[in-house]
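Hi there. Long-time user, first ticket. I'm pasting a complex I've been working with (about 226 residues overall). I'd like to know whether the download I got is complete or cut off, because the file seemed smaller than I expected. Thanks.
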Amino acid sequence: GQQLNQSPQSMFIQEGEDVSMNCTSSSIFNTWLWYKQEPGEGPVLLIALYKAGELTSNGRLTAQFGITRKDSFLNISASIPSDVGIYFCAGPRNSGNTPLVFGKGTRLSVIA
Amino acid sequence: GAVVSQHPSRVICKSGTSVKIECRSLDFQATTMFWYRQFPKQSLMLMATSNEGSKATYEQGVEKDKFLINHASLTLSTLTVTSAHPEDSSFYICSARGQSYEQYFGPGTRLTVT
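Hi, the file is complete. Here it is re-exported in full:
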């Protein structure tokens, strides 16, 4: 089945540093979604990408939909302590009314 | 916009009892809702897909008689864990989807079965 591979699995960075994480698949996805989950909470949608090559920003976050439709990356600029959490990429399993496939997440820790 | 609520946020129950968890889309109509289970430090595991007015579609390995799902309206889905056992203790999260592929998640329900 479709799988999403996220890297890195975890990262420790200093406050103020930029962060980059990515998500790859052997299958083509027509939509890429990036979520952030904090401990004890449900995931929160950060950015949705619908078009190959699309680059979208949400504040300090920027995400791109890869040209091949098999990858996406998420960048966070000038990290702050509240960026701590697990970042998941996701995409619809198939076309139509289907569930999302999730990556295993990138755990981000920010050291003040 | 796109707010999804879950109730209760935490529940502790005795082994053998049943627990109902509600998921509501507060400001949009959800044609489809999803129920996930999450173990510590792991990703979300899809349990079932629920479409309003029809039977839920369960993922392989998920017992439909144990995890009863009802999606009676476009804003409410419920998950009932029947005859709960300690191994059912987990974090249960619902999500709701409107017209696009974007899913909005509830805050989750922490279930502890003693």
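A couple of notes from our side: Chain A touches chain B at residues 31, 33, 35, 40-45, 48, 88, 90, 92, 97-100, 102-105 (CB under 8 Å). The longest strand of chain A covers residues 85-92.
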